[in-house]
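Exercise 4. Each item below gives a protein and its sequence. For each, produce the structure-token representation.

Item: Neurogenic locus notch homolog protein 1-like (Branchiostoma floridae).
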Amino acid sequence: MGQCKSWGVYALKCYINACSPKPCQAQATCTDNPAPSLDATCTCNTGYTGDGRADGTGCSDTNVCSNSSNPCHAQATCTDHPAPSLDANCTCNTGYTGDGRTNGTGCSDINVCSNSSNPCHAQATCTDHPAPSLDATCTCNTGYTGDGRANGTGCSDINTCSNSSNPCHAQATCTDHPAPSLDANCTCKVGYTGDGRTNGTGCLDINACSNSSNPCHAQATCTDHPAPSLDANCTCNTGYIGDGRTNRTGCSDFNACSNSSNPCHAQATCTDHPAPSLDANCTCKVGYTGDGRTNGTGCSDINACSPNPCHVNATCTDNPAPALDASCACNANYTGDGVVNGTGCSLQAGAANFAFFPPLAYTLMVVLSVCGFALAGSVVHFKRSHSYDTT
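Answer:
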């Protein structure tokens, strides 16, 4: 209520306290307004807001989270402190980290790739998912394969030799390069040559016949063995004999004269034809005649009596080869060397010669001997001359 003051008998003043009837809300401070005002000012205490009046909006806790004085970061949850506090708790939302306050560290996206909770394999690249996610994408680095996650299949070296991307030829051995390489070494197997790569020269059968390692003699035909062999067959060409190999018997001229296939007669000289011929020349030895070949006329003794070198009154006897002459012996009652171009054969003294000469084959010719006797006889058939001894 009011209050009155007296200044003697002539004056009286009364003061009315507008706060006495408690016009203010319990959380407001009441301040009486000076007279002539009959009202009071109600001011909400710290931490409260409103008109402070019991018959007005009163005083309610000031929610610092709901106005421009919100101390929290946009990615933080604000929890108001009860009055009289004018502050709040700021808690970063899921996926964020920090003190949550705008004037502090605020709230930044939690990078799960940058701490011990990294879900990715050591050989994977981690890409953080934006908040509110607390996960990341794990991608295996070049040269590795898998899901990239530490708790999954992880990342293993891509073996380029074990899949369709194998760069090596079918006849090459593939050796994978360690990651991060996506390539491999390709080595041609034994018996093959090349770079071993399907997109290169590949692997070709090493032709042992086509290079300096040719094992065959110059006169041999070389036939390469299929890989993996590094050898070849060596066959001596026609007219040559041997194993055909340069480091063995090689190939020598086939001597048709030196074995059972000798085409020449026993009395012929055999001269081998140079390879590639498999034949020989056959020449009858001195005193023989013919083609010299066993399957031909062979070699027969040359009959020196034909043509006869002997006198008509001599007997011709061929001398065996290798002689090229004959022996001439005068017939009985004749004497001489018996050779036509020698002394010939003359009638010996005391011998009669009865000669019958054609065509008078039936006429008896009587020749007187040197002794003066004459012989007579019957007609006989003679065509050659004969001598008769009359002694």
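Check: Residues 352-391 form one domain.
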